[in-house]
Amino acid sequence: ILNVEQSPQSLHVQEGDSTNFTCSFPSSNFYALHWYRWETAKSPEALFVMTLNGDEKKKGRISATLNTKEGYSYLYIKGSQPEDSATYLCALVTTDSWGKLQFGAGTQVVVTP
Amino acid sequence: DAGVTQSPTHLIKTRGQQVTLRCSPKSGHDTVSWYQQALGQGPQFIFQYYEEEERQRGNFPDRFSGHQFPNYSSELNVNALLLGDSALYLCASSLDGGTGRGRGYTFGSGTRLTVV
Fold first, then answer.
1. Which residues of A touch B44 (CB under 8 A)?
2. FRET pair for A2, CA 20 to 30 Å: which of A72, B46, B77, B100?
3. Nearest-CA neighbor of B96 among B26, B11, B37?
4. Burial class (CB in 10 A: 0-12, 13-18, 19+), B55
């Protein structure tokens, strides 16, 4: 059983502050790492799909990095805004479970004005 | 452009009953996956359908079955419901053959199933 772990479980951020959190995963059989943002009462929204060691991706104020050798990915939010409040999920795809997303439990981010 | 549509949004069933959940993928997507999310956990993979066939299956009992139709829509059926089947069921579609290396999956808002 693969363990995809996310930390912290939750965090509170003041508006305007930057923050980051971690997704850890087994480094063997790596194929891809997905990040999703899930706002309350909405659908999970794809942020990034990362495939190569050293990948860095950016979407607006949100960016992510990937280290497949040591098995972790960081998600960064720069200048947090209340609309960034959501649960951020990472999901691993391995070469022996092609297409199957193995999710972590998520990091819940609350941005207060 | 409509995304993934799931129906119904909420459902209450009695233990032992059977339930069918429905999913229409995003226009142009050909692969549909189903996930179960229990409270406090990340979504758990149930199975994936491509070209009307079950391509992969997660660690779920045979009580969970599915189907994909020629128009790519899909159904998830659960027989002999247990209290532990109460969860949010998410449908996701993609156009990467379900490889997981494309642009990411498009998710629906889910069906909240409560078994009493």
1. 103
2. B77
3. B26
4. middle
**A41, A43, A105 member nearest B42 (Cβ):** A105
Best CA proximity match to A93, nearest among B47, B43, B100, B103: B100
| Whether A43 and B4 lie within 8 Å, measured CB to CB | yes
Put simply, the answer to whether B56 touches A97 (Cβ < 8 Å) is yes
Going through B1-116 in order, the beta strands assigned E by DSSP cover 5-7, 10-13, 19-24, 31-37, 44-50, 53-57, 64-68, 74-78, 87-94, 106-107, 111-115
φ/ψ of residue A39, rounded to 5: -85, 150
List residues in chain B touching A: CB distance below 8 A. 3-4, 31, 33, 35, 40-45, 48, 55-56, 58, 90, 92, 94, 96-110
**Which pLDDT score is estimated for B77?**
98
B9: left (phi over 0), alpha (psi -120 to 50) or beta: alpha
Least confident of A20-24, A60-64, A91-95: A91-95
Residue of B nearest to A95 (CA): B99
Q: Report the range of poorest mean pLDDT among A67-81, A89-103, B54-68, B70-84.
A: A89-103
Stretch A71-91: mean pLDDT, rounded? 97
CA-CA distances (angstroms) from residue B57 to A17, A25, B42?
42, 21, 17
Of B31, B55, B101, the CB nearest to A32: B101
Torsion sign across C-alpha atoms B20, B53, B85, A92: negative
Residues of chain B with pLDDT under 70: 1-2, 97-98
